[in-house]
Design brief:
Blueprint (H helix, E strand, L loop, with lengths): L2 E8 L2 H13 L4 E4 L10 E5 L7 H17 L2 E7 L8 H12 L3 E5 L7 E4 L2 E4 L2 E2 L18 H4 L4 E3 L9 E5 L4 H9 L5 E5 L1 H10 L6 E3 L2 E2 L6 E2 L2 E3 L1
Parallel strand pairs: 1-3, 1-4, 2-3, 4-11, 5-10, 5-11, 9-10
Antiparallel strand pairs: 6-7, 7-8, 12-15, 13-14
Helix pairs in contact: 2-3, 5-6
């Protein structure tokens, strides 16, 4: 039986919490877990695997096992959360999820244009600075020595802003503005595994017809000065 639960596999808890927060902002019933033995009653299931802190072999094993479990539960809407600064075992984990879930194609779009993180002509920039010239160059676990996508991810097809993708394999998207992300989403279908960061996930939810809810900020009651907590309004 196919379930409509959107499932996100994240390689660390911070990224998982970010995706869960986006889901709540869009009014979804969210379940944030570190493992699953049964499918919870929710609309968005976010699983924090913590594989970024593991060896590549262990990260592959966990992603394979988790993807097979999700497939058995009938979850066909899988999103692979990746780091927007390209840290982690990105390609090995993505390939493991593809193989175990049955996807022949994947779109990899870790950029966050809303935060100045883009790929222009195959080079990754953070606020107009090449990635390997930022503090991420000295990351203790995943140091960055190149900002060129073809060097960081050899064998991956680099797709331009038209949104056109190859028939098989992994496409890394050039994306500079949010409209670029929308273009890639338009060219995606159920057979494409989406992998990336917050901007891609947000755009995906919007393409599925979800709308962000209005947030009433924290304030004090004007009548008695008592704190009034934030609320989400449809």
């Amino acid at each position: 039986m196919i379930t409509r639960v959107i499932t996100v596999i994240a390689d660390d808890f911070t990224g998982a919490a970010e995706i869960a927060g986006i889901g709540l902002r869009f009014g979804l019933r969210v379940n944030l877990a570190t493992d699953i033995t049964s499918l919870p009653d929710c609309e968005l299931l976010v699983i924090a695997t913590d594989t970024r802190s593991m060896s590549e072999a262990e990260a592959i094993r966990i992603n394979r096992k988790l993807s097979r479990t999700l497939k058995q539960f009938g979850c066909n809407k899988i999103f692979k959360k990746t780091d927007s600064a390209l840290r982690g075992h990105i390609l090995p984990e993505l390939k493991a999820v593809m193989e175990s879930s049955g996807h022949r194609r994947a779109l990899l779009l870790p950029e966050n244009p809303s935060r100045g993180r883009i790929v222009w002509e195959g080079v990754y920039y953070i606020n107009e600075t090449p990635l390997h010239h930022t503090p991420f160059a000295d990351d203790p676990e995943f140091p960055t020595h190149s900002s060129t996508i073809s060097e960081r991810f050899p064998g991956v097809h680099l797709a331009d802003h038209s949104g056109e993708m190859t028939e098989t394999g992994i496409c890394f998207a050039n994306a500079v503005v949010r409209e670029d992300i929308k273009q890639f989403i338009r060219h995606s279908d159920s057979g494409i595994l989406l992998a990336g960061a917050a901007d891609l996930f947000t755009t995906y939810l919007q393409s599925e017809g979800y709308a962000a809810k209005k947030i009433i900020p924290y304030s004090r009651d004007s009548r008695n000065g008592t704190p009034s907590s934030s609320a989400v309004v449809p």
